[in-house]
Amino acid sequence: MAQEIERKFLVKGKFKPEVFKSTRITQGYLSSVPERTVRVRIKGEQGFLTIKGKGNHSGISRYEWEKEIPLNEAEELLQLCEPGVIDKTRYLVKAGEHTFEVDEFHGENEGLIMAEIELKTENENFIKPAWLDKEVTGDDRYYNAMLTKHPYTKW
Question: Residue 87's domain is classified under what CATH number?
Fold first, then answer.
């Protein structure tokens, strides 16, 4: 099984001068139950189908399976998704040997900016840029699947 180990943080400062790539992402959920989420994503001109399992006790690691699918199939599957679509711009920012994925949300999640870092182990050390704010790893409100049901602008 593929394990995803990641930590999530809110963003408080200016990260954009450090961005080396950005991509618009649209995604929806065929299933958003906590035990398994099934996500359809359009990232730029590529489509993806992703299945994620429930997180461990710390919320840092969980099962993840992802497969690239044709763009037209991703567009069709988005029509079958549960209500609520995530629209965001993903920025990539290097920090030491790691790359943070910083998501700036649009639409009903406007104003939310979150950074994620994928790690090899749960205890791996990494550089924390000055623009990182509070850690929200394991806080269900910040999972994209939850943001489709309870958008940030309605908190």
Answer: 2.40.320.10
